[in-house]
Amino acid sequence: MSERANEKFKILIVDDVPKNIQVVANILQNEGYSMAFAQSGATAVELVRTNPFDLILLDIMMPEMDGFEVCRRLHGDPGTADIPVLFLTAKTDTESLVKGFETGAVDYVTKPVKDAELLARVKTQLELHRSRQRLLSINRQLNEEIAQRKKSEDRYRNMVLNAVQGMFRSTLDGRITDINPAYTRILGYDSPEEVIAIDEAAKALCFQPEDRAVMIERLKANGFVANYELKIRRRDGSPAWIMLNSRLATDEAGESFIEGIAIDHTARKLAEEELRRSREKFRYQAIHDNLTGLYNTRYLYQALQKLVDTCGAQSKPFSLIFMDVDDFKTVVDTYGHLKGSQTLQEMARTIQETLAEPAYGVAYGGDEFVVVLPGFDKQMALQKAGEIRTRIRETSYLAGHGHDVRIRASFGIAAFPEDAGDVNGLLALADQAMFDVKGGGKDAVRASEGRI
Asked: Which of the listed CATH numbers 3.40.50.2300, 3.40.640.10, 3.40.50.720, 3.40.47.10 matches domain 3-134?
């Protein structure tokens, strides 16, 4: 996107800290965007309602009216609902991210802001916004063209042949009787005649014929369909997406037929899919450890507090296993840091293979792991820890690299509510029990005897 093109975009930056606004503005200033600023939620809402913006960069944590409330108000107003909101936030916990999307935000950038990430996300959202606006404009234009088409058959034919949007006529059973060059190009064919010659082409070109069947039912019920998305198959077999605006009409013989307009929706669809994958990836990364794939400590503390509250209210037990690899430094000194990390990955798989939901493993840090066992009392946890210990002892690690690494681990157990009634107390007691195993010779399981 050129700097000259960016001059058409207007961005509102909202943050109660002027320094934060300046940081974001400095990153964007060389991109040619027009920028405005607000230091409170109320000011932002008023500016957006009285000025056209293409994108809002919104801080979450603000006094009086936070970013969630600002986003909720804008999203609830038809006049501002379509303006994309991108959160600027240091809150990366899953609950806050999900809440942001639920209030209407399209994406977020974490603080401290990284130049490349901010520029990429701003560019993506502006391009999507421009595509949406262009689609609305095209739809308005197409509706006007359809009205004009009724006045003159000659005008209609000229428009069909020269329109940049795909146009067609087909029978209800799927035979295409007329198609313009633009739609022919979307389908990947060289001439309209090639498409018309395909037996029941409207059906054959659909990836999922049942989607067309749904469209036909809506046409019969309402007489038209607007912005109906359909996945089609190009001549070379590749997929494409079109947005259909069609109506049910009747010819001179009283036979019903379909006529409509097809807009190539592929680029936008692919962009939306990429954005969806990006959101899923960030949600996953927010609560998982990058090395082992187990949950991380951020998830552990959130989930443990919920488990304490739930089990406390229902008078149900759960247990923690705190474990640490014995003499892991020897593995690293012998095989190197990379193979040490590989060993931890393989050990994490060993742990995971012994667990069934709702139990789960956590990469606590370095060569330490935590296993959370909902519904397990202390005796059951001792048995599970023994099972994990045996599996680890019997597993040959780094076998895929031509080595036979045998490792041992020390295990400490604490149970709720028997040993402690809060998160920190449980973790401390399990850690202490594990530490006692380390001091007594390692490679063993020990349950806490304390009460906090």
From this structure: 3.40.50.2300
152-269 is classed CATH 3.30.450.20? yes
Q: What would the pLDDT profile of 141-164 be if each residue is shown by its tens digit? A: 877 776 776 665 555 555 555 556
The token duo for 419 is 């040993």
Which letter does DSSP use for residue 113 in this model? P
* CATH class of the region 288-447: alpha beta
What's the distance, CA 291 to chain centroid?
Answer: 21
Q: 84, 122 in Cβ contact below 8 A?
A: no
Rounded to 5°, the CA angle 54-58-61 comes to 170
CB within 8 Å of 337: residues ≥ 6 apart: none
Give the closest residue to 434 by CA, choosing from 362, 385, 384, 376. 385
Domain boundaries, the chain: 3-134, 152-269, 288-447
Taking the C-alpha atoms of residue 71 and residue 85, their distance in angstroms, rounded to an integer, is 7
Angle at 373 between CA 371 and CA 376, to 5 degrees: 140
Nearest-angstrom CA–CA distance, 115 and 223:
50
E strands in 113-171: 166-171
| Sheet with 360-365: strands ordered across | 360-365, 368-374, 318-325, 409-416, 445-447
In the chain, the amino acid numbered 72 is: R
Burial of 123 per CB tally in 10 Å (0-12, 13-18, 19+): middle
The label of the residue with tokens 């503005």 reads 25
Tens of pLDDT, residues 301-326:
999 999 999 999 999 999 999 999 99
Report yes or no: 97 and 119 within 8 Å, Cβ to Cβ. Answer: no
- Single out the residue of 266, 212, 261 nearest to residue 234, CA to CA: 266
Per-residue tokens: 86? 């991108």
